[in-house]
Amino acid sequence: AILLLGRLIQAASVGVSMPLVQNVLTLIFPAEKRGIALGIGGIVINLGPAIGPTLSGIIVTHWSWRMLFIALIPIACLVLVLGIFTIDNVTDTRSDHLDMPSLIMSVFGFGGLGLVVCFLGFHKLASLEI
User: Fold this and answer.
1) Buried-state track 1-31, b at ≥16 Cβ within 10 A, e below 16
2) pLDDT by residue for the chain (130 residues), tens digit each?
3) Domain residue spans in the chain?
4) What pTM did the predictor assign?
């Protein structure tokens, strides 16, 4: 359960960060270099899912599955420290407000979407022949 929760948090983080990377690249690069920057960013983003299973298989073949998590600890700490000292804020900070009609519509919209996905998922599960 803890591993699944961690994977859920990881997936949500990547789902938020991928569009943000593209947004930042379009902000900091001029129009004539934007295509190259987005292409390199796309390569970096897609490199993880392409290399990850093979590298994980090699690690699990030669060591314990726990090494998958242990090996990431120093890498994550190094990236965190380097990020704190090298990443600059490229956007202007501004305060936004949340209006009540948008909040109400979002609650009903996302709640309805969740119910539909849940209903369709249970409907598919119920129709499976085991």
Assistant:
1) eeeeeeeeeeeeeeeeeeeeeeeebeeeeee
2) 787 888 888 888 888 888 888 888 888 888 899 888 888 888 888 888 888 888 888 888 999 888 888 888 999 999 999 999 998 777 777 787 888 998 899 999 988 888 887 777 766 655 665 5
3) 1-88, 98-130
4) 0.51
